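User: Thanks for the earlier help. One more: Amine oxidase domain-containing protein. Can you show the sequence and predicted structure together?

Assistant: Of course, both are below.
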Amino acid sequence: MDSHSPSSVIIVGAGVSGISAAKVLAENGIHDLLILEASDRIGGRIRKETFGGVSVELGAGWIAGVGGKESNPVWELAAKSGLRTFFSDYSNARYNIYDRSGKIFPSGIATDSYQKAVDSAIQNLRNQEAESVGDHSSTSKVTEPPSTPIELAIDFILHDFEMAEVEPISTFTEFGEREYLVADARGYEYLLYKMAEEFLHTSEGRILDNRLKLNQVVRGIQQSRSGVRVVTEDGRFYEANYVVLSVSIGVLQSDFISFNPPLPRWKSEAITKCEVMVYTKIFLQFPYKFWPGCPEKEFFIYAHDRRGYYTFWQHMESAYPGSNILVVTLTNGESKRVEAQPDTDTLREAMVVLRDMFGPDIPDAIDILVPRWWNNRFQRGSYSNYPIISDPQVFYDIKAPVGRIFFTGEHTSERFNGYVHGAYLAGIDTSRAVLEEMRKEKETEDGSQTQLQEPLLALTESLTMSQSDTVSNLHKCDIPTQLYLGGKRGITEAIL
């Protein structure tokens, strides 16, 4: 095995939370940190790729939560970096719902169906709340599940695409309801490089600092009383006082990383209770545009009798005029199904749907791009989704450190899980918790040295102190460290 000089902190994962955590640590004087990234780039679930001559975002693609009283920190970073973005108006999508014969549902029918879906979801939430508290005195109103193609389509948009829950969402109530599509040749990931430049050595847009190590696939974390050892797939190991684990909740659930000793039961059980969402944006390029290209038609919906079947579409004309690119979003079961089949099958299915909407004479797509987040062993999904009715203790247990191992990522953000700004703020929160533990440990060590010196000095000055008293004082030096290494589940609240 190859070994390396011990670090104060090792950060596993160079996504948004990993980079933001490292930045805060460096700003607070922790320069002997080390970032281990499994892939050949930074960014995590933020990833750009060139398609059809333009830069498209395979993962996170929007800055959500803009225009409110409080400023979204990711929006601030984007403004500071001059990132190219476009406002996305989803409100028109419900009026661009196509049936399988290519007709658009009348606006009145679409509005009624949408309201019915919202009312049904709210009632279901109330029913779940009543059941969770054991309230059997009130009669739960039975709601009919969506059944028609338009009801299924709107139900999909309401739950799988537009929001993961019906209750007010902190991102929109705190930061604003506007969402902006990132359409910059430098990519959404440019924000991470700008953050990294502030504490890592870079040149001409490349990170050259040896404290960032790419292609280091962490497979094991061994913890002892004195520190933590991180073992990689290629047989290397790295040692540190603390580890910040910023891998996704999907990776934690997959047991890709082994822990020695194993994670305590309360931790592992909490990890299994968090849902993992899979969100797949499929990109299709055509020789020419055959769909309405105006901003009011940017988003359109396909109503099929199979829920989530190539339902939500977007044209890229606003972001990239003349690119002739369409994007269709799949989630969860449909995402996993498509990931498992050849792209040629996916292209064939998508073309059948498009010809249902726009007629048999439209051209074939000339290219297709299908991301595979579920089958990516370094991601295993797109983002976390806590159930609407959930025990708050589950969240705190997922976030809580285990000894010297701290956990971060969008899944540890209580108010903003599932969002880029959630990952960014989680990294800051976790790094502050690590700094606080480092401070406490230093105070413990300083106190131990003082307690050790005092009885020895007293012994030289006076022979009246008994040997048993001296030994007792020496043993007391170990008590604070033993209490800490026993592990604690308390965690510092985020100061945003």
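User: Great, one quick takeaway?

Assistant: The first strand starts at residue 7 and ends at 12.
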